[in-house]
Request: fold
Amino acid sequence: MTDRRRAAWIAPSILSADFARLGAEVDAVLAAGADLIHFDVMDNHYVPNLTIGPLVCEALRKHGVKAPIDVHLMVRPVDRLVPDFARAGATWITFHPEASEHVDRTIALIREQGCKPGLVFNPATPLDWLDHTLEKIDMVLLMSVNPGFAGQQFIPSTLSKIREVRRRIDASGREVRLEVDGGIKVDNIGAVAAAGADTFVAGSAIFGSADYAATVRAMRGAIAAAAG
Reply:
């Protein structure tokens, strides 16, 4: 059963921000009530797009961003970039297990670098990896779209996957965040929360809105309504 007392975190993805004024955009979403900042790191190899690297993370820290930064690595190989993002100021570093040669070693590397490790599952990736890793990670990120591009539609079958991961986390007794990324909007975030997620990545739904604070408030209202 989902722990309804766990705080819901809103994580705007800067993939949808205006990069010409990124510092101001991040300041604005944090002032609007966001809890952490989500980085979508793509290499045009593991996924068909090319985005940002550690220098952007470092620049936001130098700009004065104090909020946690949640770095989602959609890259292969993974290990080469982990120390760079740790030095740049990452809080969480999540990666796709199929993109790592040695998943356990990558998890250990992330923790050794002072960050919180997590695994990411694409829509068709089985959850079997959690059989041997759940006790070692701090976050499970479920992709509700196929990774690579912003603005895609939420895949409804993700809801059953969320419920299964929530069951596993609750059974473990550990404090593990359950994050969902892809097509999250005001009109579906309640269903995602009801299924058991506690951390919600939203890119275009927030950065594409006219009023960031109103959108974040509406999302929190939908989450609260789902919790009853």
